[in-house]
Every structure is written in C-alpha cells, then in structure tokens.
Amino acid sequence: MEAEGRVHRLFLEGEDLQGPEDLPLEDLAGLLEDLGGLLRAFAQGQSPETPATFSLVGLGKGSVALDVSAPQALNLEKGLFLPLSEGRYEALGLEVREAAYGLSKRLMAKDWTLKAHLEGKTKPLLGAAHPVPKPEPELVLEDTLTLYGEVIRLGGVEPKLDLRTPQGEYHIKASRERLKELQGTLYQAIGVRVRGRFAREKGGWRPLGSPELLEVLPYQGAGAREALEGLASLLGEAYRDVDPRAFVEKLRG
C-alpha cells in the first residue's frame, strides 16, 4: 500500500551506527517518540485546527536512514529542517524549539546526529554535531487575560473556542457547559477572560498551549453604521452634510 503524504528521508549517524542492526529497539522507540513530538509541534504551529499524522514508512542503511511520511501541505524542509540546520531558532515557535532541544539532548547522550538532505547537501539538524541550545523565552507568565475578538470556531471532539483577535488567533479550551453560553455567537464579536501560560517573544505575548476559558464577558461590538454615527457626533462640522446611513449603504454597494 502506498503511504499517504510526502516521504522525507532523515539520516541518523554515529560512530557505532553502521546500519539499522546497530540500533536497539528501545533507542529507536525513544527517538521516534521525540521526533514525532517535534513534527507535531511544528504542524500545530502551522495549522492548529488540522491534526497531522506522521509515520515511519521505511528504515534502511545510510548509516540509519529513516523514511518519515508527513502531510503534503507541510513544508518541512523550508519551515523546520532549514532553520534547524542553519541555527535560525528564532524562526521557530517556543514549543518547536523545546521539542527540538529534547530530541537533541537524547541524540547527544548517544553521540548521534540527525541529518537531512537539503539544498543538494546532507546537513546536520540536531544532535552531537549540531546541538540545539536550551530555549529561553524573554519571560513566561501564568495569568488571566481578557480578549476581544471574533468567534471563528466552536466545539469539536475536544471542546474549544477559536477566537480571531487583532493580535492573532487564540485556541481556547472550554467545557461544554461554557460553550453553551456561546451558542449563536459564531462570526460575532465577543469578550472572554482566559487563564494560561504566556511567553513574551519579539515584543508580544504568545500563549503556550491552549488557554482555558474562565468567563464570557458582556460585550456588544458596534456595527459600521453605529461607529460612523458616533464619529459624526464627535467631529461635528466636518460631517455636517454626511448622512451616516446613506454613506454605509453606499460602501456596501
């Protein structure tokens, strides 16, 4: 049966690894667990709403060649492998860096290196020949946060609320009882109070994992007509001859 997705060949190298026969099963299991965690963290950062499946579809010599199947939509070479090989860790999210650091530590303990074929050359990604530094966010806080934005998804197998805000999308865990309070709010503006862990990176706050919904706040965003009427009342003479309702209807065609 043909494997789904795109197959990526990785190379596990070390002085004691001449082929798969030199790789104990328990070491292979731990390696695949950490590698799967790294790939899932990267996929989650690219498309949080779409689960990604990764699988080992081949094991061969070279020293140990690992053929890993990944979804076609994920650009692992450009998005993950190249930044790792070039040491551009700032291009990766904190959770991806933490997963890469964990896998790198496992490989370094065995004096092994994981490599990939990139831009015509086989380059080390992480491990003994290319260790990943321990990620250090500027600051991590566990606190409550008030968010205002548009509801873009509700529910799912694991109950959640996806909120689009001016700062980006937040994927918020919620009990089914809390979600009942949000019935009828899809594609509407709401306010919520959440609790979670947030890392300060590149001048902004990024949630670590999914924050938890604590409270739905009373909030009613103003429509375009109401906003223009409020502006007209503030500017006075400048909007003296403008009919807000006619102006909005003209904009809407």
CATH topology label of the largest domain: Alpha-Beta Plaits
CATH architecture of the largest domain: 2-Layer Sandwich
Total beta-strand segments: 10
| Number of domains as seen in the coordinates | 2
What is the averaged pLDDT score? Answer: 83
Task: Count helical runs.
Answer: 6
For the termini, the CA-CA separation is 54 Å
Rg over alpha carbons: 25 Å
Q: Quickly give the structural class.
A: alpha+beta
Strand content: 35-45%
The major beta sheet can be summarized as: 5 strands, antiparallel
- Which shape, going by the Cα principal axes? elongated
Q: Stretches where pLDDT falls below 50 for ≥5 residues? A: none
Helix residue percentage:
25-40%
- With strands numbered from the N-terminus, the spatial order across the biggest sheet is 2-3-1-4-5
CATH class of the largest domain: Alpha Beta
N-to-C order of helices and strands: EHEEHHEEEEEHEEHH
Outline the structure in words.
The chain has 253 residues and is of the alpha+beta class. The chain has 2 domains: 5-127, Alpha-Beta Plaits; 140-221, OB fold (Dihydrolipoamide Acetyltransferase, E2P) (Beta Barrel), CATH 2.40.50.140. Helices cover 30% and strands 36% of the residues. The protein has 6 helices and 10 strands. The protein has helices at 25-46, 76-86, 94-110, 176-180, 224-235, 244-252; strands at 6-13, 55-61, 64-70, 113-118, 121-127, 139-154, 160-165, 168-173, 189-201, 204-217. The strands form 2 sheets. The protein has a 5-stranded antiparallel sheet. The protein has a 5-stranded antiparallel sheet with strand order 8-7-6-9-10. Strand 4 (113-118) and strand 5 form a beta hairpin. Helix 1 (25-46) runs antiparallel to helix 3 (94-110). The longest helix is centred in the first third of the chain and has 22 residues, at 25-46. The protein starts with 5 loop residues before the first strand and ends with a helix. The model has no long low-confidence stretch (mean pLDDT 83).
